[in-house]
Amino acid sequence: MLNPTLCAGLIAPCAFSLELKFLKPAAAVVILIFLQIKFSHTWLGTLGLERLEEFSKRIASRKRLCVLLVGFSLLVIRSALIPVSGIPLPRYHDEYSYLLAGDTFAHGRLTNPPHPMWMHFETFHVIWHPTYMSMYPPGQGLVLAAGEILGNAWIGQLMCAALMCAAICWMLQGWIPPRWALLGGVLAIPRLGFLSYWTNGFWSACLPALGGALVLGALPRVKQHLRWRDSVIMAIGLFILANSRPYEGLLLSVGVAIALLAWMFGKDGPPLRISFARIVLPLVFALTPLAVWTGYYYYRVTGNPFRMTYDINRQTYAMGRYFIWQKPWPQKTYNHPRMEALYQREVRETEENQSLSGFIWRWRIKLYYFWQVYLVPPLPFVLIALPCAARDRKLRVPWIIGGIFAAGLVIETWGLPHYFAPATALVFLILMQCIRHLRLFRWRARPVGLAFVRAVTVIYIGAVVLRVALAVTHIHPEPEWQHGDIERESIVQQLKALPGQHVVMVSYSPDFDLDREWVYNLADIDGSKIVWARDMGPEKNRELLAYYHGRQFWMVHAGSSPLRIDPYRESAAGAGL
Are 201 and 156 in contact, with CB atoms under 8 Å apart? Predict the structure, then answer.
């Protein structure tokens, strides 16, 4: 949901605010262009840009090696930054919900039985009946489960980010020359890798971007080579999209399907017999078992293979709707005032979006945040060549796919940058094509376009190096949120150091951020050392005390300063529900 507070928290570090303050990209680009043109035979030689470009050409010709290098580079760089940047902690509702799914899968289960005391643990983006599970599709949970098995759930997120960057490079190789595909992959490493909330958190962003890159990269290969393996790769990408961001994945898939069918039945397409044998059958054979698994998962969780957990959660709790023409659901009854406050906020945002002025205002916010994540300065300067890229016949199909995708996003009420994740590779394709056109521009026989592209690249890499250098010196320009919910984690560490098992009763200050929540538990609530529960007042708390009579009970007031955790006292219960 597009809450400005949440968006600002998510996007602020992605803007490279500190770097921009000192580098002034626009002025820097102009100065570098002048220097490169004026001293093209000396200054460029000193920097070694020409030699670097020649070296990249030789590397880029080895396509598989480039894909591996892009993914491996992200793993190495972000792992090397762990001593200074640490391993992220969760902070927002979505992250905790994904971690619940990951913990469930890591313990060999598809879901969990409902808890008899579920009302005390009730929280956002989780269903409690017919089973206890995250409301989100299972894809991100599987990623985090892999990491949890290896030692920490974030390891799965890091591996997924590496695969995403590698897949973007692979996708670009199918559409543009290898050297430009390599550059696109390299640009994705810092932008979406180690400097983004996509990697430094537990959101489902890298996974749908990976799925979208596989689908988009398989399309030109299927048309060019008619190999069954490319059809299988496309099927895997479709499966990932269906189990990470189903609606946005469907939008991308529709565009790709239209492009593929138009080619298959067009004058340049292969005979139908060959299309059926090498495209349709591999897709069907690969997708069928994957679709069956998805249906079985929802059958185990919701009791119906065609009913998503998302649908159950929204019908249980939500009043705001996801598409702009939908009217809010009727008023619902909530067990906790804090949950009612968030869903009432959704209603206000839904109604605001249904007026023309509200719709325009919210879309300005969406576009701004999209720009901050995908087009961080100085990359927007290459959009000078966007008219050339728009007329490029090689990009006709990607533009159509992107147009269908964007049209589908317009009708959504909410939108965060990772909602666009399935089409991430398209953004890099357009950027690379703009760079290719811009590079050829000359003015008075001077290679202005070449100098421009080199200037943008140098500044981009310089900003990344500066950001990493600041981290090494323990200067972090991003807000504290990017390290996760440190306050909640401090309580966890205190209680882990104590013997026995614990229950933390949580109340909230009136101004405590609605997008943060402390009452989240793992898959096996009763087996956890620390159980988080809502303070529901003395009378209702007694049944929880009786259920966990062997545990130590504590009270914490989220949002208080200084933060304290005290032994539970019935006289203090219910002070801040």
Answer: no
